[in-house]
């Protein structure tokens, strides 16, 4: 299945000079949605146990939940500042078109739990790196960071010290 056809380039969004990869046509296609979730679950090495999948707000929630269901794992949301109701740890970070703060609940991960981090796009890697640091702070073991797509020309991989995998590369 050619899912690249269902990802469109939007120039100058959200800022001049950025070519935004819009996954909404892919999400709207029922066959493509199941296909990409299956592909993401298959990126994880066979026999690698995963206790929890982290999805990064907002686009990481959609496939993150579908991967968790496929792996029989729990789902943990990492959210933008001020959205999680209980006690949190926070990390500020920079991404391709700005900066922000991400948070995780302090009790979301137990020490030694095996974690898959999922997001839709790996661009500069700032977002994923911040999430890795939050997981490390809680004592989780990161099995893999996986993405629908990697924008290889931005070298996000170089920022991350864990196995990286993606369904599509640009
Ligand atoms: O590798 P980076 O340069 O850090 O960029 C990748 C991040 O940028 C986008 O999130 P965004 O903050 O736009 O949030 P959204 O999912 O809420 O749209 C994308 O979903 C990743 O989380
Ligand atoms: N170019 C891009 N398209 C979509 N999401 C992104 N997140 C960071 N850079 C992005």
Written overview of the protein:
Homodimer. This is Adenine phosphoribosyltransferase. One of its GO terms (molecular function) is glycosyltransferase activity. Keywords: Cytoplasm, Glycosyltransferase, Purine salvage, Transferase. Strand 3, helix 3 (59-71) and strand 4 (74-80) form a beta-alpha-beta unit. The protein is of the alpha/beta class and 170 residues long. It has a seven-stranded mixed beta sheet, sandwiched between helices. The mean pLDDT is 98. The chain has four helices and nine strands. The radius of gyration is 15 Å and the shape is globular. 1-O-pyrophosphono-5-O-phosphono-alpha-D-ribofuranose binds at residues 56-59, 95-96, 119-127, 156.
Please tell me the overall pLDDT: 98
Which topology does CATH recognise? Rossmann fold
Treating each run of at least 4 consecutive H or I residues as one helix, how many helices? 4
Ends distance: 17 Å
CATH class identity: Alpha Beta
Estimate the strand proportion: 35-45%
* Tally of individual domains: 1
Structural class: alpha/beta
Query: Which architecture name does CATH use?
Result: 3-Layer(aba) Sandwich
Sketch the topology as an H/E string, one letter per element.
EEHHEHEEEEHEE
Strand order of the largest sheet: 5-6-4-3-7-8-9
Helical amount: 25-40%
């Amino acid at each position: 299945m050619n899912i690249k056809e269902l990802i469109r380039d939007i120039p100058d969004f959200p800022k001049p000079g950025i070519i935004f990869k819009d996954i909404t046509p892919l999400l709207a296609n029922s066959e493509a949605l199941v296909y990409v979730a299956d592909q993401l679950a298959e990126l994880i090495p066979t026999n690698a146990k995963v206790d929890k999948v982290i999805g990064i707000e907002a686009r990481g929630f959609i496939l993150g939940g579908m991967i968790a269901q496929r792996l029989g794992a729990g789902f943990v949301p990492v959210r933008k500042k001020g959205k999680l109701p209980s006690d949190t740890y926070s990390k500020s970070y920079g991404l391709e078109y700005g900066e922000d703060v991400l948070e995780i609940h302090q009790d979301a991960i137990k020490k030694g739990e095996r974690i898959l981090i999922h997001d839709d796009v790996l661009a500069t890697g700032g977002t994923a790196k911040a999430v890795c640091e939050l997981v490390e702070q809680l004592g989780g073991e990161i099995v893999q960071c996986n993405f629908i797509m990697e924008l290889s020309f931005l070298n996000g991989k170089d920022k991350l010290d864990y196995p990286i995998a993606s369904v599509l590369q640009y």
